[in-house]
Write a structure and sequence with these properties.
Length: about 60
């Protein structure tokens, strides 16, 4: 396979066909691109596209 050919490790989004290199990236893509529900900080009310972004925010939110 060439540099831009598909490999067995690539995963395809079932909703839009985007190809990603691993399961974690696929999960993040699906959350950001296809999840209409926002994750909301209970302390300040800021909304985030992913649980990971909310988790990072919570470390500094008081």
């Amino acid at each position: 396979m060439g540099l831009f050919g598909s490999s067995k490790n690539e995963l395809k989004c079932k909703k839009c066909g985007t190809v990603l290199s691993d399961h974690d990236r696929l999960k993040k893509h699906e959350e950001k691109a296809h999840n209409k529900k926002k994750e909301k900080c209970r302390v300040c009310g800021t909304e985030f596209d992913t649980q990971e972004d909310l988790r990072k925010h919570k470390k500094n939110c008081k």
